[in-house]
Amino acid sequence: MIQKSWKNNLSVTRYLMDICLLVGFILLCLPNITGILLHEWLSLLFIIPFVIHLLLHWDWIISLPKQLISNFKAFKGQARFNLLWDLIFYFAMLIVILSGFLISEAILPQFGIQLTIQPFWAEIHDVFSNLLMPMLGIHLAMHWKWIKSLSVKIFSKK
């Protein structure tokens, strides 16, 4: 009984953190509305739920590649694509975060760090950040069964 309760709590925690992550992500996609200063500070804060998301899903992150390597033929195409897509999405997110720091107009100067903004990094940031929204849509679609079943479980009347 304790084991099941612990797993239910972990699932609800994952679910709630994922909602926070989604809301934060949407806010970050609106720098024209939030302004550069708020966009950069929210981006810096976004790293926290992003890391928490990875840690909360760490069991899946670790187990899937091991299973894929040990029993590649048993894996359906969807599971292989899911793993590859999440990996590409993760690296795209890292590129956006890194390039965002390299083109910082607000945060780094506040700390006395002056960088010459290179057009290359600004272009990389723009291209990859524009790719993240559709990539997130595909990521959510791939995990839709989990989202839907947990939503029903959490919001159903007991």
3D structure, described in words:
It is a single chain. The chain has one domain. It is globular and about 50 Å long. It starts with a helix and ends with a helix. The chain is mostly helical and 158 residues long. The protein contains 8 helices and no strands. Helix 5 runs antiparallel to helix 7.
Tell me the β content: under 5%
**Number of helical segments?**
8
Number of domains: 1
Class based on secondary structure composition and strand pairing: mainly alpha
Which range best describes the helical content: under 10%, 10-25%, 25-40%, 40-55%, 55-70% or over 70%?
Answer: over 70%
Features:
158 residues, 8 helices, globular
Structure at a glance:
With 158 residues, the protein is mainly α. The protein has 8 helices and no strands. The protein has one domain (2-155).
Helices and strands, with pairings:
Layout: H1 2-28, H2 31-34, H3 36-56, H4 58-70, H5 77-102, H6 107-110, H7 119-142, H8 144-155
Helix pairs in contact: 1-3, 5-7
